[in-house]
Amino acid sequence: MGRAKDASAAFGRLIAFLAVSGLCGALVAGIFMPVAAATWGATNGTVQFFDNLPSELSVSPPDLVTKMVAADGSEIATLYNENRTPVSLDAMSPNIKNAIIAVEDYRFYDHGGIDTAGVLRAVIANVKGDRQGASTLTQQYVANVLKENLLAQGQDPTVVLNGQKSIGDKLREMKLSIALEKKNSKDDILAGYLNIVFFNTHAYGIQAASQYFFSVNAKDLTLPQAALLAGVVNGPSVYDPTARPGPSVERRNLVLDAMLKHGYISQKEHDDAVATPLELKVNPPRQGCAYAVQAQYFCDFVLHQILNDPAYGASPDERYQKVTRSGLTITTTLDPRLQGPAQAQVDSTAGPNPDKWGTALVTVQPGTGRVLSMAQNTRILPGQGKDFVTSYNFGVDRTDANGNDLGGAGGFQPGSAMKPVTLAAWLGEGKPTDQIVNAAQRRYPLNHPWRDTCTRVIGAYDSSTVASLGTSGDLQNDEPQWYRPMTVREGVYQSINTATFASAAGLNDFCDIQRAADALGMHNGEGAGAKLDMSVLGNLLGGPNIAPLTMASAYATFAANGTYCAPWSITDVTDSHGKRIGGQAQACQPGSIKPDVAKAVTNVLQDVLTKGSGYNIKDNAGKTIYLGVPDAAKTGTNEFNSETWVIGYTRGLATASYFGEALGNPEDHLGRNVIVNGRFWPVVDGAYIAGPQWAYYMQKAIGLYDRGPFDAPPPSLITPGKK
Predict the structure, then answer these.
(1) Backbone dihedral region of 359: left (phi > 0), alpha (psi from -120 to 50 degrees) or beta?
(2) How far apart, in whole angstroms, are the C-alpha atoms of residue 611 and residue 522?
(3) Are the beta carbons of 26 and 40 closer than 8 angstroms?
(4) What InterPro entries is this protein classified in (predicted)?
């Protein structure tokens, strides 16, 4: 039985020999003797097939690494399908060039794309039972290019490199190789091969492989390092030095033997290299926003600005492929000088955080809309140094961040930080800040005579009708002493609910509140154009969820004397050749809020920090924290004390500071009788934790941007009767 099997195997090898010999004969005839070959009846069909094959290799650019960088050019993150950084041949060590030629194709500089002597030699070896390949480096390069072309078309490239290739597949590679050699120099082909070849799932091309396995550039590879990498390409999984060091060193030494045999190294160089131990210095690539060098969540926000933009492709998948395959450079508005302090501050605010309190800081530049920093006290992946792990972005709308049903947190209830909207509406009608309103009034029943031209006001505060109509009870303030007449100014800086409602009731048109909110760019945290409905009474006091980025941009409008600028984060997107293919443009609306109105709002919000609710922004010693420059702000707290804010600004920076229940139900995680960072809080207010977070961060940031005085408002918007 054993003899029969041996005979069968020998017969099979003989058939293979004859078949391949015929193929080689046909191939040689087709290349060198087309006229004579046409008379070979047995090979005529093969020659015609060969003649009809394409002879022009279409080279789709191989996958390249996209880089996202901050405004100063510093790296934020890399994004890719294949980690590849092409380099020129002179940026590669001679050791790797010599090693790859010696072991893979020592006749590389002698043949014209295919090595007929090598083919025949491989046929004879295979007939003898010794497996031997015959592909030249040019053929291997062609095979890799064809693989990349299939990848670019979204097709399965497996068969091109390691599947069962047909004779037609091999003939096509051979003809393309011959044509390529006629068109390109040997050095160009060698460089192309070394830049495209697969070494590891983390490393495509020699530069990425050098960095991954040895943490060096390709030009600095030593002889033993180069020999090892040249050996890896023959079987990246079999000879992976990180997983199989023994076989990889054996293969390295075979490469060194080949280099010695073909005269690339001396006997001493060979022996020294063989004696060198395997000394890896693995440098795993940090791909994606989860491994960003800085600003993980800002990175994710920027990425989704591109993935949501049809300018980069017809479908989300096409846009994703463009980002991860095309070697783009995405230059952003991020200012690392602000991002570093912001991240340090949010990390320290909550400290050890078993109760999973969320903190966030988002800064935009008034008058431009540039997003300068975005930080929160979590990490995207476990083991990154924080015990609070989430892919939710606290700073942005739900549609502006990570997908997979996660995304942005969708905003939080801003509480009294919404009161400047009603103030802006009041001032927009020409009414002064120091006019007295009746903050003693607590009931606003369903039939209250609101003056509105565009909508019907929804909701009521009236304890007398609670049982029968299900409306809310009487309007509440935090403390009982504020139910009295007071100026609109005092009502804002002391954050008095009844004063805000008295102001709304005194408007000529309640719909001016909606107009003010729209002019400030305010919208629901769900994103995608979700409207913020200010006809709902509870929304005057901060009932809807709004993202910190939206709040910072709204307040930046006051800082910029009424010019609203949509927040933007991408200055330029360039392709792998440096050509600009995209980016966002500054989109500002001068006079979105009347300049004098914005100045008057700022004038009131300055009082918040000197004698109002912001006066409670204190350090651990109980001392009020001042920035020492002109500034304005508003605190905000929801009714459960679980969502707390300070949004404040100077002329040059507007920052939203948030502390609270960022992921769960705000009704289930009350900010009362809690311990935060080792300190007990009977109740959490916007000024208490979000306030110092804002102040400490702004102290570090304000010197980098305009910190001059605000413009004074006209007297007519301050004092009743003034003109």
Answers:
(1) beta
(2) 27
(3) yes
(4) Beta-lactam/transpept-like, Glyco_trans_51, Glycosyltr_51/Transpeptidase, Lysozyme-like_dom_sf, PBP_transglycosylase, PCN-bd_Tpept
For the entire predicted model, the pTM comes to 0.83
**Structure tokens given for 455:** 């909508």
> What is the identity of the amino acid at 534?
M
Sort 574 into a burial class: Cβ within 10 Å, 0-12 / 13-18 / 19+. Answer: middle
Q: Give the pLDDT confidence of 30-75 residue by residue, as tens digits.
A: 444 333 333 334 445 555 544 544 555 766 667 889 999 999 999 9
DSSP state of 614: G
At 555, the pLDDT band (50, 70, 90 cuts) reads very high
Q: 513: which residues sit within 8 A by CB, 6+ positions away?
A: 421, 422, 425, 504, 507, 534, 540
Task: Report the alpha-carbon distance of residue 532 to residue 411 in Å, rounded.
Answer: 12
Would you tell me how many other CB atoms lie within 10 Å of the CB of residue 168? Answer: 12
Give the model's pLDDT for residue 107. Answer: 94
* CA-based R_g, the chain, Å: 35
Domains and CATH numbers, the chain: 415-574+588-717 (3.40.710.10)
Tokens of 132: 């031997």
Cα–Cα distance, 126 to 433 (Å, whole number): 95
The pLDDT of residue 169 is: 74
> Residues with Cβ < 8 Å from 720, sequence gap 6 or more?
432, 434, 435
155/151 Cα distance (integer angstroms): 5
**Each residue of 174-215: pLDDT tens digit?**
888 898 999 999 999 999 999 999 999 889 999 999 999 999
Q: Quick one: 456 exposed, middle or buried, by C-beta within 10 A (0-12, 13-18, 19+)?
A: exposed
- Does residue 68 contact residue 296 with C-beta atoms inside 8 Å? no
Compute the average pLDDT of residues 258-273.
Answer: 98
pLDDT in tens, 329-344: 999 999 999 999 999 9
**Res. 553: pLDDT tops 80:** yes
570: three-class secondary structure by DSSP? strand
* Nearest-angstrom CA–CA distance, 575 and 63: 12
Tell me the two tokens of residue 205.
């091309």
Task: Tell me which residue of 684, 688, 633, 627 sits closest to 656, measured CA to CA.
Answer: 633
Torsion of CA 186, 187, 192, 197, to 10 degrees: 90
Strands 679-683 and 672-676, by their bridges, are antiparallel
Q: In terms of residues, how long is the chain?
A: 723
